[in-house]
TrEMBL record:
The protein's name: Bacterial surface antigen (D15) domain-containing protein
Coiled coil stretches, renumbered: none
Record membrane topology: Multi-pass membrane protein
Organism, scientific name: Gonapodya prolifera (strain JEL478)
Upper classification of the organism: Eukaryota, Fungi, Fungi incertae sedis, Chytridiomycota, Chytridiomycota incertae sedis
Keyword Translocase part of the UniProt annotation: no
Family: Belongs to the SAM50/omp85 family.
Sorted UniProt keywords: Membrane, Transmembrane, Transmembrane beta strand
Localization annotation: Mitochondrion outer membrane
């Protein structure tokens, strides 16, 4: 008994070390030098640009805080698999220390093939990433995507159109180069080029080919991240089906859209796939004008808000709101490929994909204004405990419309006061990269032209209302 009591436990030793560090934090300290090892391709200035906090530190606490700051900055560059920082006594003695930084670089070339899930489609993707291209943490990312977009309702085809277009194939190719300014991951410049062919044959009787370039600057602001940029897209609406409506035919042909855009986002959710607490918000604004190049003229703003809260005993509630408004300028008439679409298992459940809003015949025309809101209750499933499978109860509402006379108060009021709505129940399953929902849906309110679906609906995606 006496021998056991005379030897401190590991917990006691850790507590003593912690107390010693806390008591010594105000002690005067300075950094004499910083030594780096392990770098192969990375230029020395990448490290020296991050070392400012070391040389401005005057106490032990300051040096320890600077070590964490430098570690985080280098790790977020994405070019190192390991970043270790240690302190050594300086040969000059006194209160000076030497900082020893050891890094291990990630492989420069990374090739990935696999399946990715978006908000309304599944895709096969091949991507190539080249890291640290010139030694300054630059990256080049290229990808090729072949996607199949489907209406995920588990019901049989109800028209010749459904039978003919059981799925819509799309392809996309992109090449993006990114560079953190001053080797700082909080300030990144990106330029990219790309081409895509997206089929809307099933919903709107056309295929859109888009070729263009983008340039973006991304940074942090006190509440989250900010992005500003320029894009120029040559758009071609073509390959119309034989029964395409006149509204779709009037949008066919070539347009050149050049725009400035800005996005602010904030996300403190505990899980982006199936959150149980926290909140997220995003707002995006865009202005297109011929002075930027092109023939599309208009202003566009949209945003979304998500709130989650744990209720205890495995229950949680999530609420979401999305809205957007497109204002054409200088007499410009919006085209189908300018607008938003609404409806489907990841937006307003209980409706076909693109099933809410105005139509010409069987063609969904999209809308200049939309809004959608939803609330979901997630419950534990008996005998499964805290696993990835949850019970799900939901209610959704939303509206989408074309504002022929502009965003007038009566038109917007009608859009809000006469929504499409649905409710239902099912299960939600969290996977590593996506969420699957299987719900029995009951449409409660519909506007003229809406395509509702009573019964089971399957949704697979990342962002759900």
């Amino acid at each position: 008994m006496g021998d056991k009591d005379s030897h401190p436990s590991a917990e006691d030793i850790n507590r003593e070390i912690t107390n010693l560090i806390l008591e010594s934090r105000p002690r005067p300290f300075s950094v004499e030098s910083v030594r780096v090892s392990g770098q192969v391709h990375t230029k020395p200035w990448v490290f020296s640009s991050a070392f400012g906090p070391f040389y401005s530190s005057k106490t032990l606490g300051g040096v320890l805080s600077a070590s964490q700051t430098v570690h985080d900055r280098l790790a977020r560059l994405g070019i190192f698999s390991e970043v270790d920082i240690g302190l050594d006594a300086s040969p000059t003695g006194g209160d000076a220390v030497d900082v020893v930084l050891r890094v291990k670089e990630r492989p420069r070339l990374f090739i990935k093939t696999g399946t990715e899930i978006g908000t309304s489609d599944g895709s096969l993707t091949t991507s190539v990433n080249v890291r640290n291209v010139f030694g300054g943490a630059e990256t080049i990312h290229g990808s090729a995507v072949y996607g199949m977009e489907t209406d995920a309702a588990l019901s049989s085809a109800t028209s010749a159109r459904d039978a003919s277009f059981a799925s819509s194939a799309s392809t996309a190719f992109t090449l993006v180069a990114a560079k953190p300014l001053w080797a700082n991951p909080d300030h990144v410049v990106e330029v990219g080029v790309g081409k895509s062919d997206k089929s809307q044959l099933r919903y709107s009787s056309f295929v859109e080919t888009e070729t263009g370039l983008t340039a973006n600057y991304k940074t942090l602001f006190p509440l989250g991240t900010a992005e500003v940029g320029y894009s120029s897209q040559w758009r071609h609406v073509h390959n119309l089906s034989s029964n395409a409506s006149m509204s779709i035919r009037s949008s066919a042909g070539h347009t050149l859209k050049s725009a400035l855009h800005a996005t602010l986002s904030h996300d403190v959710r505990d899980d982006p796939v199936l959150p149980t607490s926290g909140h997220a918000a995003r707002v995006t604004a865009e202005v297109a004008h011929p002075s930027l190049g092109g023939d599309v003229v208009g202003a566009k703003v949209d945003g979304e808000l998500s709130l989650g809260r744990k209720l205890g005993h495995g229950f949680s509630v999530q609420a979401g709101l999305r809205a957007g408004l497109l204002v054409p300028l200088a007499g410009y008439t919006t085209r189908v490929n300018d607008r938003w679409f609404l409806g489907g298992p990841t937006t307003v459940r209980g409706f076909r994909h693109h099933g809410i809003g105005p139509k010409d015949g069987e063609d969904a025309l999209g809308g200049d204004a939309f809004w959608a809101a939803g609330v979901s209750l997630f419950t534990p499933v008996p005998w499964l405990g805290e696993g990835p499978i949850k019970g799900h109860l939901f209610a959704n509402v939303g509206g989408l419309g074309i504002l022929k006379d502009g965003p007038t108060a009566p038109a917007l009021l009608d859009l809000v006061s006469n929504p499409s709505a649905s409710a239902g129940a099912g299960i939600a399953v969290r996977f590593s990269i996506a969420r699957l929902e299987l719900n029995y849906c009951l449409p409660l309110a519909m506007r003229r032209g809406d395509d509702a679906r009573v019964g089971w609906q399957l949704g697979l995606g990342v962002q759900f209302l």
